[in-house]
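tool=predict chain=A
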Amino acid sequence: MAYDVLVYVGQALFRNFRTLEEVQSELKMRNTHISLSEIDHLGRKFIKYLALAHAQAAPRIRQKMRMAGGYVLHLDAAHEGDAPTLFSGLDSLSQFVLGNIKTPSENADHIKPFLKSIQDTYGLPVACVHDMGTGICKAVNETFPGTPDFICHFHFLRDVGKDFLGTAYSRLRNRLKSFAATTGLRAFIRQIRQSLGQSPDLPLLVDAVNTKTPPHHIEMLPSLSAYSLGLWALQGKRNGNGHGFPFDRPLLEFTERMLELDRYLPRLLENSCGSEDDQKPLRVLAKKISKVANDPELIQTTTELRWRVEVFDDLRSAMRIATPDESNGLNDDGSHEAMSTIRQDVEKFRQRLDKESHLADDHLSVKMARQIDKYGEKLFADPITVVSPQGLVTIYPQRTNNILERFFRGLRRGHRRKTGNNSMRRTLQAMIADTPLVKNLDNPEYMEILLNGKDSLEELFASIRYGDVKGENRSNENTDRILPGGRAIIKKQKLPEQILEFFMKTKTAQGSQSN
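tool=predict ok
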């Protein structure tokens, strides 16, 4: 077997997320001609070889972790629809993926054999970190009784926030859908874009708004402003810090921008320049926005979401993770503040849920309080002191499962790149369970343990008996573009206010010239 081709194909497919066609083209450039089905077969064989090499290295991995004082087992899963659940375990101290399994569900009876195999291979973990799933909590408790067991802070906040904000957010989504708010606004922007053609004037509007200096072609101002304000409203749907709902609320930001436009557009029309015909785009935009912004149910839902968001964001701040003012997105592992301080602030927040009458009478606030009470002891991990060959070692369990979350996101991104769609159902069905071991290949310490003196993966794989692997199964383009200068102007947080100031100044200057 040409192990160089095997390793090349495996790394191209699973580390670089190449498509089968791309790998075939790259191999042709290396004078290697094989079919797409054979490339797929080699990719699966690569994972099998890697899994066997990992199993052979397990005693050395165990020794490495024992020298560090033990390992903290982080558990997480990827699942979608009726596809099997891909379950992974990782040591957060070494950041080694330790094991993987595909199960029909996250039922405790399916998870316990996997946890037992981890214990048999690597010993008892010094602590576990995972999400709030009933099955995994039960499986960990029964398999590792007495082992410190913690809930991932990010998962906790996400689940609490979804419960607390989800109902009102769904109502808001439905109201926006009933008005076709997004599609209607996009159609309006596309229409204005067509009428403007390749207009060079938008950058001039950007400069004019910044300097409050009227441009020469004032008859274009209403169209350019309507175009910019429409884009600015839609930009709200892209706002956020990369955490996803409930931390990011793009539909609420989109709605807030439409409400702000509804307040400013009448004044913009009063102070607009040009003829009645020139002002038509602004009038059309005002009519579209007003229809949505004055819907009583939408206003009521938005009002409710505002105070709920404020309460939830206070809990985020108390827990010092995924806070509203940080932008690390899902890479945020939380601040390094003393756990005792974080615990005190969460307890203060919990007391507030009882003391403030509007929260004490709200059933979702009561549910949030119960969740804090239920998982409180599993949220706050004090340092753990263990005995290692070097003496006493203090281990600090990580507050999040973001290591595995990042891996699963990378897997999903690679899948999107290769297939062009978001659904992972078929991929999870076909995927070999040990595919997450590929993550370890980015870790130099792991590679040193895995290779065990050999120079490369090719040499390592060549030393593995083929029979151990043999049993595996094969299993409207131009008008949608934003005009030059558009991206700069829609990033302005107070664009309606700035354009109004600019309109008023332009109108005053116009009046002075006519006199």
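The chain is about 60% helix and 10% strand. The mean pLDDT is 84.
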